[in-house]
Each structure stands twice: as C-alpha cells, then as structure tokens.
User: What shape does this take?
Amino acid sequence: MNNNNVNFRVFPGGNLQGVARVPGDKSISHRSIMLGSIAEGVTHITGFLDAEDCLATLNAFRAMGVEIEGPKQGEVIVHGVGLHGLKAPNEPLYLGNSGTSMRLLSGLLAGQSFDTVLTGDPSLSRRPMKRVTEPLRQMGAVIKTSHNGTAPIRVRGSGPLESIHYDMPIASAQVKSCLLLAGLYADGETSVTEPAPTRDHTERMLEGFGYPLRREGNRISVCPNGKLIATDIDVPCDISSAAFFMVGAAIAEHSDVTLLHVGVNPTRTGVIEILRLMGANIEIINQQMVGGEQVADIRIRTSHLKGVQIPERLVPLAIDEFPVLFIAAACAVGETRLSGAGELRVKESDRIQVMADGLQSLGVHAIATPDGMVIQPRQIKGGKVDSHGDHRIAMAFAIAALRASGPIYINDCANVNTSFPSFVNIARSLGLNITVCAE
Ligand code: S3P
Assistant: This one.
C-alpha cells in the first residue's frame, strides 16, 4: 500500500533535451495479463509496465491460480489456464488505486462459477462502479456494492450470463471492455455501442489471441464458446506517460525531445491532435505496426502555443492527458476552453477541481466548470500544490516548473508509482530539476 508522504520539489526553469523511452502502456499491460491468463498456452509479454496498477492485476490472477513468471525487465510469462480454468481466490482481491483492474475484472468474474470480492484503496473505493454493475446485472450477474454503488464489489459466481445489447450512456473503454469480457461467458451474442470512440485495446488484443469479434461502426459484438490462443505481446510505451515530456518540451525554451516506441493507436492520440491545434511542433517518425498496435517515435520541440477551444470529439481520445494539457494551456497565449469532460471529475481525483485549485495557487487564472475548465494563461509562480494522491496531477505540476518563476512543491506523490515509477529518473535525465523528499 502507498504511504502519502512522498513530495516533489521542482526547481524552476531549464529545458528538456534528449531521447527517452517511457515505460509500457498501462491499458495494454493490464489486458495482456487478463487475456493471457484465460488463454490456452503460454503468453510471452515484453515491455510490460512494472507499476503498482498492473501488478494489482497480475497478483489478482496469481491469486486465482494462474502461474505468472516475472515481471523481470518488462518480461512476463503467463501460463494460461483457459476460459474456464480460473480458481476461487482465498481472500478478497485488493486492486489498490486501479480502476481498470476493478472494472474489467468485474466483467470477467461475473461469468465464473466462484465468488469473489474486489477491494481498493480510498480513492478507488470512492469511484463510481454502477456503470459496470448495472449492465452486468442486466446480464443476470449477482453483484453487490456499497449502498452508493462503490467498492467493495462482491461478485457471486452464478454460471452463464444472459447476452444483452448495451447502449453505453458514457464513452468509457473500461465499461466497454468489462462487458466484452463478460460476453465471453454469456449464452449468446453480447454487443455494446459506444457514444464516441474510446481506446480499443481490448478489441485488438482479443483479435490478437484469435478470438472472433465483430466491429460495425460504433457497435462491437462477441459470442461465447470461442477460445483464446496464447501469443506474444510487445507492449508499446505509454503515450499517457510520454505526454508529460511532450508538453514539457513544447513549453520550455530550447527543448528538443524524442520519445521512442510510443503507442500511437488512433484511439489514444488526442493529446497529439490537441497540442498540434495549439501550435506544437510534433513529428511522428518510424511509424509501424507491432502486434496489432501502431507504434512510432515522437519528436517534439519548443513551440509557441496558443489557447484553443478543445473539440469535444477529442475528449475520450485524450482523457488521461488533461492534467498536463492544462499546464500547456497555462503557458499558451490566449484562453483555452474545455467542455464535455465531466468524466475528469471521477478519475483518481476530481481532476477538474484539483487542477483548477493547483493552477490558481500558482497564479494562473483557471475556472472550473461542471464539465471542463477555462484557463487564461499567466506567469506560473512558485508555490505549493496538493496532488490529492493522484499520479497524473503530481507529474503535471512537476512539468509546470519548467515555466515557473519559483520552485513548485507537490505533496502526496507516492502514487506516481501506480503508472510511472521511473518518472523522476527519466525527467531528470531529460533536464528537469526535480528532487524527491520523503518525510
Ligand atoms: C482505461 C480507460 C479510461 C482511462 C483509464 C484506462 C482503460 O477510463 O481513463 O486510465 O484501460 O480502459 P474510462 O474508460 O473510465 O474513460
């Protein structure tokens, strides 16, 4: 479990220069363990994200009897047990800070023949779970949550589920993936339609494991009784981690950074599109397909950013990158407006309020709205920021120091280990003047 007494102290100014390889993609790493575990045969994973969130998923499958070797320098070997080979865990599955683990596992476990309990840390225990438990109940799953629809989630193993069609009210890859995984255990075809495109790693990886899937427009369908055949997975580097250095290089004078082997699946590249709308100088080099996912090197240099109205269609495609995009907006010329992003309020923290509060405490004019933010750039001052234990808030404010007039102190940063344990080392190697103080 995390303690919350790790703080960052980041000295102002400087620039970012060099070449870096950020760690593996978090979404793809979770799915590689889940699908590898229910596949037949041995799955070899390279580039796995060795961070707390993905280890929560890995440990959950170990607790359900799956033999998993590693992670060792990003290599993991999963000895798949097949769709019906998981075993009842001896105790509740503790999923830490990881919403992806909890929501995807709810679907996968609803179709098992044994009972499970899913728990998490205080942040995860506040996050909404009805978005998955309601459609799963429509499929006949027997699931209990706390009275306000949050974890712990108790899943009763009740045999085959009923297939449904679900018209998703929110654009969420976690809900979509949860229902597709439940659909593997249903009595007929399960389909979902999404109101806007969201990351499609589950669909791509199911196909990579040889599991048939139908995609027609915004509708995705799976049938039961297929099987997953073990395969090799090369996890690309996480564009959500790369985003911190993309923004850092764009806002700091004399910067030039190249990020290698980054996943540029078009359902994840909203951050590139938004930064380009703001005028950023970004080059995509060496683009290639690696195991069903697009991968490229991204070069980004100092840019004179301008404020924009962020198109709502890009919101789900950049959903995790808004904390650092708000920093870019604070350093631009002219106002930036974001709307249609109410989902940010139910992430690891309320990312609209927490970012607006942090920016204001550094002298930036940031007004939170119910579903977004209006930012009028100002000189970023030094000061103290509360990250509320949210990894992406902590890393975003560290990057802000590149354009600050005094040091920025960020508290409660231990959860950076949930997604990017090497953040401080890579940031330093590129030129950020950051120190870690453990109290
Ligand atoms: C994720 C989907 C997104 C994202 C999260 C990872 C996934 O959540 O914010 O960090 O791996 O499917 P939502 O589906 O809730 O938008």
Summary: The chain has two domains: 6-24+236-438, 26-234. Residues 239-251 form the longest helix (13 residues). The chain has twelve helices and 23 strands. The chain has a mean pLDDT of 97.
